[in-house]
Amino acid sequence: MKLMSVPETADKIKSMEIRGAGRIARAAAEALRDHALSLKVKNLQAFSSEMEKAAEILVSTRPTAVSLPNAVHIIMTGLDQAKDIEEARFRLVQRADGFIDSSRHAVENIAQFGARHIRDGDTILTHCNSEVALGCIIEAHRSGKEIEVFATEVRPRNQGLITIRTLNDAGIKTNFIVDSAVRSFIHDVDLVIVGADAVTVNGAVVNKIGTSMVAHTAKEARVNMIVAAETYKFAPRTVIGEFIQIEERGPDEVLPEAVRKTLPNVTVRNPAFDVTPAEFIDLIVTEAGAIPPQMAYIIIKEYLGWDITEFAQGFDAPVGFNGQQ
Ligand code: RI2
């Protein structure tokens, strides 16, 4: 397999050739690991500073999915405690491989846990393309439950096309609808399942633009809404009141320049994500189990290993994935 350089991976994440909050985190982990393995420098200080630069390039690609800085933080932790380059390299590679493995296991466990909340005969609505949300749906189907899915188109990047291809290939009966048709079909739906790019300490979920509209519609129709999210999508810095930055992407994704030129008074706005408040979400399914959104702090503290006291000591306290030091 060809190794991808850090700038190559960063470009692919930016352009969304590599996309999905979990996948971009694993891609960043691979890029950091490969960079560490190929780095030829004279001393530990140079090694750390080169790795820091690479980490910064990767983290700056997409600002919303907190899986990315969380993964990078986990992998970079402890570099300064190594006694030489070889130890630093070894630790980093171990952490990167550990993160990739944990991430894959988390996706599998969430599929198992999430599928339990899907009943035989259920019709499920999903928005965008989330590997964990789809994992739950596919696992329910695999375990013999008869289910049907409504999948939205997801303007402007049409991730719904990836979703319907996956569902089709799994042999699941699927209805493809435009985003604005959600309210027209919500009474045919028993359960909404979506993924997450970030979960805040107060249980709000940041996910693909349109998710909050789906959530409002589901709430109005008394349809339950489940969010499938690995623990590394919970955002530690929201504990100290930081907001999640919502990525606004370029106008070309929505309207070609040739058309925009004819409309001098029109500005295209293209936020990639929106925020769904906790009260619109019934359950967040993580690899550590299913929790009500209001318990998000427990995940940040117990599973990511972040505690409010650590912020007082400075943000770089050595913590790791699932709280391992
Ligand atoms: P998984 C995606 O963002 C979608 O918003 C999706 O719901 C979320 O990441 C989580 O995806 P984008 O990369 O990690 O399409 O569950 O902007 O695959």
Describe what you observe in this structure:
This protein is of the alpha/beta class. It contains 12 helices and 10 strands. The strands form 2 sheets. The chain has a 7-stranded mixed β-sheet with strand order 3-2-1-4-7-9-10, with helices on both faces. A hairpin with a 2-residue loop joins strand 9 (283-286) and strand 10. Helix 1 runs antiparallel to helix 2, helix 2 packs antiparallel against helix 3 (44-59) and helix 2 packs antiparallel against helix 5. The relative contact order is 0.12. Residues 312-325 have low confidence and may be disordered. Bound molecules: 1,5-di-O-phosphono-alpha-D-ribofuranose. 1,5-di-O-phosphono-alpha-D-ribofuranose (RI2) binds at residues 19-23, 128, 130-132, 159, 194-197, 207-208, 272.
